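Usage

Read records sequentially. Each one opens with the input sequence:
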Amino acid sequence: MDYRRSYVKDIFSLAPGSEVDAYGWVKTRRDSKGVSFVQLSDGSCFQDLQVVLEAGAFPEETVKQLTTGTSVRFRGEVVESPAAGQAVELKATQLEIYGIADATTYPLQKKGATMEFLREISHLRVRGNTFGAVFRVRSEAAYAVHKFFHERGFRWIHTPIITASDCEGAGAMFAVSTSLEATGHGDDAQWKLKSADPTQDFFGKPAFLTVSGQLEAETMALGLTNVYTFGPTFRAENSNTARHLAEFWMIEPEMAFCSLEGDMKLAEEFLRYVIQHLLDHCGPDLEFFNQRIEPELLKTLEHVATSSFEHMTYTEAVEALAASGEKFEFPCHWGADLQAEHERWLTEVKVGRPVILTDYPKEIKAFYMRLNEDGKTVRAMDVLAPRIGEIIGGSQREERLDILEDRIEEFGLPKEAYWWYLDLRRFGSVPHAGFGLGFERLLMYVTGMKNIRDVIPYHRTPGSAEF
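and closes with the structure output:
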């Protein structure tokens, strides 16, 4: 056997009479009048392959070992299937068992399980229908991201995971240090600080896990013109909610010689492209989500993929919210961050399609966003989507050295940590823009999954770093 073996998804397209090996894990086995029917899955597609074991073809003791979770290889003939919902099935002539799963202890049985329980067995949950579908969609979405940017001449940039600067100026960062040392082992280990002096630490200065690759991406864009990052980022906010992770993946394009208008155009094209790609290539998985997770999911995705996005300023949005007559949980006023309930009202009630908001108050946005002529707002934009709210955030970056220095001081950030970022404004500065999209937020949107922990293989949240 090798990597070129047939996948279950390929077997469905074979003509009856073909001989083939089928590898995978047993979902279920049903015995009927001496004949056994095994549902086999290898994760390559949503549909299971039905394997027929005719009476007397294999020892009874061997067949009884085909319990849920057991890994096997069947060899047999592809035949037309009399069962509804499948064109072909496999009539087995050979059987090899690789690993038995004890039916009394295997935790992923056919009966339903809660999402909370499945998170406790994240190392096994991908074998089930829901998470098999989630991670196939995740893989296809990642491919669509790279394909979109590659087709438009963007270069993929690997920005550092360890950084000495805080991109967002929020301070919620994980420190990277070798200053802690342990005495003892396991649960008995005691930790103490070797040195509180950061100059004695590994990097000779305070270092952190990055919250964004944007600043480094800007340096690459001001030389390669159009670039993007797609990698892991980290935030140490103690937010134990269904929408927050401590470790997550970000997609961040940066474009030199680009205005906010160009940034908005790219964001709209990007979102429509990825959604349409998934509609074209993940039909059975999305249909499952549509039936089991989020009613009318397909209708929503198809609408977004074919809609033009509405544009309005932050000020216009606040005025519309104030005049709506709605009783929101969080009052809305100029200068306040919009909440998810406000964003959903704008997209679902006011407009009925995605909305791009622009020109936010400078106090609620990051230091690097270009200051507008009014001195009160910045050239920021957020893409809001029905059912989830904000899905993309971006801006035109501040290319003027003096104003950027003032903004860094306003945020109380150490200017010396950004000497290299300021150099970009000293040497050949140009207008440039970009945006960021949390990959897991996008996956929640396209699958309808309600908790962000369920669209990443192993979630990292406050109090949880299992596996």
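Summary fields computed downstream for this record:
- The domain at 8-99 is CATH 2.40.50.140 (OB fold (Dihydrolipoamide Acetyltransferase, E2P)).
- The chain has a mean pLDDT of 93.
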